[in-house]
TrEMBL record:
It comes from Candidatus Scalindua brodae. The keyword Oxidoreductase applies. Transmembrane segments: none annotated. This is Phosphoglycerate dehydrogenase. Belongs to the D-isomer specific 2-hydroxyacid dehydrogenase family. Gene3D superfamilies: NAD(P)-binding Rossmann-like Domain. Keywords: NAD, Oxidoreductase. It comes from the Bacteria.
Length: 333
């Protein structure tokens, strides 16, 4: 007899998600009930549906301790690359697996960061649309070759972006917490101190997870002082495809308004969706995208495949892949 499996997806269906997950899980002895809560800020609907869910994919929805305590059947919170939206202490207390997806979207995010860099280099102008509108407004851009790219974070995404940037002829330096791990065999990358990177880079690319507590805290890592250091070096550009709260957004807005930061390209924000009244929407020297760096067809299929695979594992009392480091001690063999 097939077992019923309820999977709560706090996301809209992109045409790939439900199809991929359902096709993988259905043939493994389960009757699958997939529930979508399309509005990730719909706390009431998430709270209602989580009560009898077996598997939860929060995406960018906040999963509070109260929600977790009410979720009597949940066996797995399957997050994306970041897992800062899940209350880990409550998950620990309930002994519920929390997993993420390290590396699955790395290629897509690295490519998006390079796209943002290229767009800034060409003045963030939609020349194609201007041409279709009958205009002939030429502009002068810059070459990326010879410029210094500073990577704050040197994990899966950082290593890929470093390779791409190196192919463009850029000099690459990087800061990582575990400096002793070196450049992972990428001899063209110099691992440097944080302040040195801020003061020597033409372009800064933020590639860190959001960590709110402890010695590895990254929340508000970049504030007024750091922005002034970035703005005083080279081109003074900042790119963030990581998490919005790593940068003090008010300080960033002021630095963009005053010209301390010459240009910025952002895919992530302290509040998402970015509020309509946000000053970021009105500044001429900032390029904005709606948190889409990891959303490519290839990355999405890898993501949804892992959701299905880990769902099957936990329902069969097997250990899922990529349990977050904070909870690994709870599930030792």
């Amino acid at each position: 007899m097939s077992k019923t499996l309820k999977i709560l997806l706090c996301s809209d269906d992109d045409g790939i998600m439900v199809k991929t997950i359902k096709s993988m899980v259905s043939g493994k002895g389960f009757d699958v009930n997939i529930v979508l809560v399309r509005d990730q800020h719909d706390v009431d609907s998430i709270s209602k549906e989580i009560v009898d869910a077996d598997i939860v994919y929060p995406d960018k929805a906040m999963i509070t301790g109260e929600m977790i305590m009410s979720a009597e059947k949940v066996r797995l919170f399957q997050c994306g690359a970041g897992y800062d939206t899940v209350n880990l202490e409550s998950a620990r207390e309930r002994k519920i697996h929390v997993c993420n997806m390290p590396g699955l979207t790395a290629q897509s995010v690295a490519e998006h960061a390079m796209y943002l860099m290229l767009a800034l280099a060409r003045n963030d102008r939609d020349y194609g649309q201007e041409m279709k509108d009958g205009k002939w407004n030429r502009g002068v851009g810059i070459e990326l070759a010879g410029k210094t790219l500073g990577l704050i974070g040197f994990g899966n995404i950082g290593r890929i972006q470093a390779r791409i940037a190196h192919g463009f002829g850029m000099k690459v330096i990087a800061f990582r917490k575990n400096k002793e791990r070196g450049n992972d065999g990428l001899d063209f990358v110099d691992i440097v101190d944080f302040d040195y990177l801020l003061g020597k880079s033409d372009i800064i690319s933020i590639l860190l997870p959001l960590i709110k507590h402890g010695s590895y805290k990254t929340e508000r890592l970049i504030g007024k002082k750091e922005l002034e250091e970035i703005g005083g070096a080279g081109l003074g550009w900042l790119i963030n495809t990581s998490r919005g709260s790593i940068v003090n957004e008010n300080d960033l807005i002021e630095s963009l308004r005053s010209g301390v930061i010459k240009k910025a390209a952002l895919d992530v924000y302290e509040i998402e969706p970015l509020p309509e009244h946000s000053e970021l929407r009105r500044l001429p020297n900032v390029l904005l995208t709606p948190h889409i760096a990891g959303d490519t067809k290839e990355a999405l299929i890898r993501r949804y495949t892992l959701i299905a695979e880990n769902a099957i594992k936990v329902m069969n009392n097997e250990k899922p892949r990529y349990i977050v480091k904070e909870l690994q001690s709870v599930f030792v063999d």
